[in-house]
What does this fold into?
Amino acid sequence: MMTRNTSDTSVTFSLAELAKIEEARVREEHLQRARAREQEAREQREAEARRRAAEAARAAAEAEAEARREQEQAEAEARARAALEVARLEAEAKARLEADNASRAHELAVVRARAEGRRRSLVHALAAALGLALCGGAAAAYGGAQHVASLQQEARRLRDAQAALAEERESARAAALAALDRRHAALRGRPLADGAEAARATAEAARKALDPRALDHDRLRAFGDALDALEARLDALERIAALDRRHADLAAWAAERRTEATAAARVAAARARAAGADEGALRAYESALDRLREALARPAAPGPQPQVRPPRPECTNPGDPMCGLDGRPL
It folds into this structure.
């Protein structure tokens, strides 16, 4: 009897120990599943945060590009208005010069006609009054002197008017040079001015060719054309910089998606940065980025799903004779 009781007690103790071990194993499995679910939820939150950050970066890049386009449009309109104003001033100055020249030519022709008529009248009077030369010589000399004095006065007036017109024209050219210098300084102060070395050197050479003491209309126009080329180059560099920032954001997005769809964008970027790239290369770069964004925005194609094996049954009653020591049915 004592041996049987001892045996029963040992069996009961072993079953209790096995039950405790099984409960510990179940708790560990539940804990591992909870940890796995928590890890999966954390990864989903991190992926969602990255997606939102990328979306915010793309929205910021698009807003920046829109602001740049609006600024470029405003600058283009300002340049057009300035060009119209300069053209209007030049046309008005030219019209005033031509009107003044025509008026002076007419006045000079009238003066010459009057002088010729007076000279002829004087010749006829001298021929008719040849016998009275002694008594009328003094009066004729006085009249001739008065006429010569009036002609000299008229000539001085014409020279003064011509000098005033020339001074006004020089003032207009000086004002145009000052406006071009201000524009030149503004262009040199832009952030990417160091990258437009060739256009900047051409503009500086055109400026050095101008002599402020003797301004030339053709050289002023050459300086303005050089500034236009410099501004166009700076605009292109700023567009390339904005596209590069957008390219970097899309490349980061593509890295998250683990895709190799950025090859075309890289080729377009290299062509846009090459020396002598035109507007077509910039548009091709922007189009490549648009296509890359559309490709990344499309959902990934569904792949084959792994097969999930059904869980093996577990013993719920450790005292069941059909339950093995490992807690699984025999």
About this structure: The chain has one domain: 2-126+140-259.
